[in-house]
Amino acid sequence: TTVHLKDYTPFGFTIDSVELTFRLAPSATRVISRIAFRPNPETGDRRFFLHGEGLTLVRATIDGDEVTPEIVDGGLTCPVPDAPFTWESEVEIDPAANTALEGLYLSNGMYCTQCEAEGFRKITYYPDRPDVMATFTVRIESDLPVLLSNGNPGDRGETWAEWHDPWPKPAYLFALVAGDLVAHADRFTTCSGREVALNLWVRPGDEDKCAFGMEALKTSMTWDEQVYGREYDLDVFNIVAVDDFNMGAMENKGLNIFNSSAVLASPETSTDANFERIEAIIAHEYFHNWTGNRITCRDWFQLCLKEGLTVFRDAQFTADMRSAPVKRITDVIDLRARQFPEDNGPLAHPVRPESFQEINNFYTATVYEKGAEVIGMLKRLVGDEAYAEALELYFARHDGQACTIEDWLKVFEDVTGRDLGQFKRWYSQAGTPRLTVRDYWTDGTYTLSFTQVTPPSAASPDPQPQVIPVDVGLLGPNGDEVRPTETLEMTGATQSFRFEGLAARPVPSILRGFSAPVILDRDSSDSERAFLLAHDTDPFNRWEAGRMLAAETLIAMAAGDAAPGSDYLDGMLAVLRDDTLDPAYRALMLALPGQSELAGTMADRGITPDPDAIWSAAEALRLALAQKAQDVLPRLAEDMRVDAPYRADADQAGKRALAGAVLGLVTRLDGGIAAAAQYAAADNMTLQLSALGCLLNAGKGKAELAAFRDQWGHDRLVMDKWFGLQVMQAAPADAADAARQLTEDADFNWKNPNRFRAVLGALAGNHGGFHHAGGAGYALLADWLVRLDPVNPQTTARMCSAFQTWRRYDADRQALIRAQLDRIAARPSLSRDTSEMVTRILSA
Ligand code: ARG
Ligand code: ZN
């Protein structure tokens, strides 16, 4: 069944309070609920429907009298009084059998929950919808030493604990944890003087991986006070690390639950990239306390209300903590890698979708990352001051409410007096706008003429022009900036902007800072790109110029051109030599565009991409760059060596990133001598893993791979890297086989989402390998999706998106992929999650 935004109606009852008792037992947990309902004055609808899935109802009463509810598909109904009443029920559930990791489940003997989006209905009968908010009191009965739930701690006995959350919340923010855990404890004093006890709960043995996450939490709390005026509102803030988790982390009120990969870190076991990701996810979940929890979503169509805003906030935080240009560039790389294919393929949907079958399938790059881009555009259009005022108004007006995108846009309209009717299309239309630019020069006047076209999709068959903020600066012929950045506000399908009083025809720098999530199409030349790479004052566009040079030369090489472009090679050599540039930024400059991204660009131009040719072109270009730069590489490697003790900060990480890029080039020249030496000497995971990656890429590293396993076999998170790296670094012809062999490894625990993704996710991410002729990669992934679906539908469905780009490729590959999709679709009792994904991917 499909749910539609337009069918929203409020629930017939409000809830005064919820009391829950949990008698924990692995296969027979009892959940007793006592819920005080009253008729909702906002509606006359008095149908009493409670969601429930996989529950065994033991008894139910209304105001103390036994009732016999009618158990229906997805829940129960029952006649109720037309006045306030108390509902009580007792159900039995089986956490040990819960492999879907949604609801209450066991992970290594520890009880934990995941309720967003609709997991609470697997715990007890309840109106499991985000617009029903209530205060929760929870009692947990168990022999386990640590018993946690939301809110503030209450009374505690030998075998039980009580918790009370004073803040009304929807059921999706409920959480419970019980296990043998140890705390890394700290404290935080809020701006108004509230003392907050902070705890990061982990399994014994992981204590030494907590310090960084805790620091990140405190920094996030301070940042949200200073930048958004948001203060924490409970006496405790608990974070728990669990090994079995479908996503990154979850913002349950006062009790965040994290995939252990998104919180546990130490220099020996985690890379710089891991540290940065952990810092961002801790911030993200913490920021949800206001954008998500205090102000939540009316219904799941409004998911971007909390996710787009919270991603935008965590990006601002990372930009403040680290390098703003580097953060912007990595976000755009990610957007193009994950969101553009979604927006331009069969899974396209608006930032605020209008229908779904399974909401878990809409926790997407479009809702999250494009949702954040939309907020960035809004801020650019109204200005920083108006943005800050609008946010103040949002928090003041909507605290304690379940809101919509209309509520969100209204605060901006009220603060600025702007009509955001057209801007709202960013929320309602799917597809990435193509922005074509032409320029004209006459007598000192320079004109930029833009045309926007959004390709129609099933979700948006007739897209209308959107408001596009285009940041533009102009450079003079000698490289000076003759016009600083200005935001051009495009609203029409075509629109021209004039710049007057210029002495000479300028070189335009368009879409600075990637001011809108569009595809910019400009007939430009390599020499103009080289000019911008050398002179642009906007760090994003400077990087973009190098990126475009790389893309153009790779596309030409993949089409049969033997020689790499000299503008690209010369430009990169200058970058390698320019010590005034931030190392992290230089490392980004040296990275080639992703091969899947290139395939997408080619398909956009009407060229059928050949994955093998793209892979070979990338290999050849890296070799050519290594040869070109061989004289500067040793000095650069030396300069980027970090002798100080390891710190996970942006400075050191930037040096290691550039050193890693240099090692990649050096390995192409020395066959792995330097990499083997680095591996042997490495005292942190960043250096160890970058060395191992280079060795594997060069077809070496057998001994190191074995040594790595000996060293780290006991550490799941490190072993995920061991599994993943072998598949990522495999050559196209070997990748599927490498992945298959790893699935036969005794440590391939496929029911653990991290381990499953380490192997099969890495295969899907190895463009040349996944798409290698013959289709072994497709078949292997499909085999495992079919196997995982009955066990864990959410993770299965998510990974189906590996096939979303299938129509880009040649007829043979399309036929091979279609056969696998058909095979998955034909499985009896396929989950709703996977069936929706496969159906959409197959649709025209
Ligand atoms: N709200 C979480 C976050 O973005 C994501 C949890 C989504 N989980 C899910 N099963 N759909 O931080
Ligand atoms: Zn989130």
UniProtKB/TrEMBL annotation:
<dbReference type="GO" id="GO:0016285">
    <property type="term" value="F:alanyl aminopeptidase activity"/>
</dbReference>
<dbReference type="InterPro" id="IPR027268">
    <property type="entry name" value="Peptidase_M4/M1_CTD_sf"/>
</dbReference>
<keyword id="KW-0645">Protease</keyword>
<feature type="domain" description="Peptidase M1 alanyl aminopeptidase Ig-like fold">
    <location>
        <begin position="431"/>
        <end position="522"/>
    </location>
</feature>
<dbReference type="Pfam" id="PF17432">
    <property type="entry name" value="DUF3458_C"/>
</dbReference>
<protein>
    <recommendedName>
        <fullName>Aminopeptidase N</fullName>
        <ecNumber>3.4.11.2</ecNumber>
    </recommendedName>
</protein>
<dbReference type="GO" id="GO:0008237">
    <property type="term" value="F:metallopeptidase activity"/>
</dbReference>
<keyword id="KW-0482">Metalloprotease</keyword>
<keyword id="KW-0479">Metal-binding</keyword>
<dbReference type="GO" id="GO:0008270">
    <property type="term" value="F:zinc ion binding"/>
</dbReference>
<dbReference type="Pfam" id="PF17900">
    <property type="entry name" value="Peptidase_M1_N"/>
</dbReference>
<keyword id="KW-0031">Aminopeptidase</keyword>
<keyword id="KW-0378">Hydrolase</keyword>
<dbReference type="InterPro" id="IPR014782">
    <property type="entry name" value="Peptidase_M1_dom"/>
</dbReference>
<dbReference type="InterPro" id="IPR024601">
    <property type="entry name" value="Peptidase_M1_pepN_C"/>
</dbReference>
<dbReference type="InterPro" id="IPR001930">
    <property type="entry name" value="Peptidase_M1"/>
</dbReference>
<feature type="domain" description="Peptidase M1 membrane alanine aminopeptidase">
    <location>
        <begin position="212"/>
        <end position="426"/>
    </location>
</feature>
<dbReference type="InterPro" id="IPR045357">
    <property type="entry name" value="Aminopeptidase_N-like_N"/>
</dbReference>
<keyword id="KW-0862">Zinc</keyword>
<feature type="domain" description="Peptidase M1 alanyl aminopeptidase C-terminal">
    <location>
        <begin position="526"/>
        <end position="842"/>
    </location>
</feature>
<dbReference type="InterPro" id="IPR038438">
    <property type="entry name" value="PepN_Ig-like_sf"/>
</dbReference>
<dbReference type="InterPro" id="IPR012779">
    <property type="entry name" value="Peptidase_M1_pepN"/>
</dbReference>
<dbReference type="Pfam" id="PF01433">
    <property type="entry name" value="Peptidase_M1"/>
</dbReference>
<dbReference type="GO" id="GO:0006508">
    <property type="term" value="P:proteolysis"/>
</dbReference>
<dbReference type="InterPro" id="IPR042097">
    <property type="entry name" value="Aminopeptidase_N-like_N_sf"/>
</dbReference>
<dbReference type="InterPro" id="IPR035414">
    <property type="entry name" value="Peptidase_M1_pepN_Ig-like"/>
</dbReference>
<comment type="similarity">
    <text>Belongs to the peptidase M1 family.</text>
</comment>
<feature type="domain" description="Aminopeptidase N-like N-terminal">
    <location>
        <begin position="98"/>
        <end position="173"/>
    </location>
</feature>
<dbReference type="Pfam" id="PF11940">
    <property type="entry name" value="DUF3458"/>
</dbReference>
<dbReference type="InterPro" id="IPR037144">
    <property type="entry name" value="Peptidase_M1_pepN_C_sf"/>
</dbReference>
